[in-house]
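Minutes, project check-in
Item: structure for the 325-residue chain
Input as provided by the requester:
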Amino acid sequence: MLIFIAAPLLLVLINSFYVTASKFETVETESCTPGIAGEICVTELRTRPLLDEDDKVIRQTRYVGLQSYRNVLELEKAAGFLINNDFRSILTIDFWKALRFTLTFTFITLPIMLAAGLGIALAVNMVSERFRGQIIFVSLLPLIITPVIGALSIRWLFIGDGILTAALEMILERDIAMFAQAWTVEVLILFYRVWHIVPFAFVVLYAGLQTLNRDTLESAIIDGASRWERVRYVVVPYLMPLIVFLTVIHLMDSYRVFEEIVGLGAESHVISLQWITYDYLRPDDAGNRAISRASASAMLTMVGIVFILALPLRQTWRDYHPRRK
């Protein structure tokens, strides 16, 4: 934990306060081209990186404090939009655009994942034991597929004249471009994440159902409880620790959404906080990477994860550490 989690996080935090950049010098150069009356020479100023004795670019590290965080958040620009009640323009800032999608993605897929996983678990639990193995095997197939490969498959099915796009065009009798606008791309990303993560919720909740006390259910049936009432007042409270566990895992994973955006090639319409960090680490034309801003973005992502996990972790703590009377 210290070597692979705490130490890297500490290094990322330190890097967010420092900027490492190449040192440049401005030199006067003269270039000549042949002409009719003679050579035509032009003198101009050019910037070039400084090299050391081994012909390597000299880099300089300097302390910048919270400047990298300000560069990522662009608070002054965002505050100007808020003052003018121009809330839509805030989404032109990369960080706030990514935060909007990340939160939407996280909190829409969470209830769908829990509801679908519980529904499938209850349905399979009522199926004859002869067929349960086959049903569980088929249900686990989406979980086996690598996220990037799954996202690429969705892209190939819907982009251009993909099979599903062609089928929709035939049914609706109109041209469809699923990747021409942001909202359809978001729908595809949401659809894929739900399809990919529901099997995990199903397996966990189905395993929990196997330990449910049958006497409690039989007592509820004798008391006249309907199927919905048994699920609401018996099954769900019993499975609540597992539901909280699934919530914690899903919140951490969804808040770091990245593979779907890359696999679907959706960065022109949709970006996430994790994608911004990746984008900062891509080298520019000069080969430099914005490591300081990438570190600041990563730390802001970590703060967001801790914030949204506060409630379920507090509930977990109460479950396992009840107050002493």
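Outcome recorded: DSSP finds 14 helices and four strands in the chain.
No further action items on this chain.
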